[in-house]
Amino acid sequence: MLRFLNTLWAFARPHTIIGTTLSVLSLYLLAAIDAGHWPMAQALLAALVATWGGNVYIVGLNQIIDLDLDRINKPHLPLPSGRLSLTGAAVVTTIAGAIGLIVSSLGSGYLFLVLVISMILGTAYSLPPIRLKRFPFWSTFCILAVRGVVV
């Protein structure tokens, strides 16, 4: 079980989860300080779970689409190394995206909108025929929009 959880953690690309967590916590703290009180912790938890789900969807889709490239450039990742099957990756990616959308839809409209925009940009970044990652400007735009503006 621990090995499976370790594989899922590696598939989730921990550096992106950490970045997402820091963004959400920073925004929460800025809003709480500005409001002069501390909003409910359940709103913070919902935002974290929703954005983690969206994050895993985006990085999971990218790894599925880039599997052939990752076999050469990143053979240590769970998918190209065989620790996670393509079907398993698709299931994890789909469930993570669904959890993100469901949890965000139960929260604020802003959270849902942010997550939908992030997931659309993440999909357009990786998925043919659009595959914005082919173009330096659009690749940078997607990353900055999701990391710097949206989240």
Which descriptors would you attach to this protein?
single chain; 151 residues; mainly alpha; Tetracycline Repressor, domain 2
Write a short abstract of this structure.
The protein has 151 residues and is mostly helical.
Description:
The protein is mainly α. The protein has a single domain, classed as Tetracycline Repressor, domain 2, CATH 1.10.357.140. The chain is built from 8 helices and no strands. The chain has helices spanning 2-11, 14-35, 41-65, 67-73, 78-81, 86-106, 109-126, 136-150. α2 (14-35) packs antiparallel against α3 (41-65), α3 (41-65) runs antiparallel to α6 (86-106) and α3 (41-65) runs parallel beside α7. The protein is globular. It starts with a helix and ends with a helix.
Classification by helices and strands: mainly alpha
Number of strands: 0
From the coordinates shown, what is the CATH architecture?
Orthogonal Bundle
Roughly what is the average pLDDT, rounded to an integer?
91
Q: What does the overall shape look like?
A: globular
Instruction: Return the string of H and E elements.
Output: HHHHHHHH
Largest sheet: none
Number of domains: 1
By CATH reckoning, the class would read Mainly Alpha
| CATH level 4 superfamily | UbiA prenyltransferase
Strand content: under 5%
Question: How large, in whole angstroms, is the Cα Rg?
Answer: 16 Å
CATH topology description: Tetracycline Repressor, domain 2
Count of helical stretches: 8
Helicity level, as a percent range?
over 70%
Question: What's the arrangement of secondary structure elements?
Answer:
Layout: H1 2-11, H2 14-35, H3 41-65, H4 67-73, H5 78-81, H6 86-106, H7 109-126, H8 136-150
Helix pairs in contact: 2-3, 3-6, 3-7, 6-7, 7-8
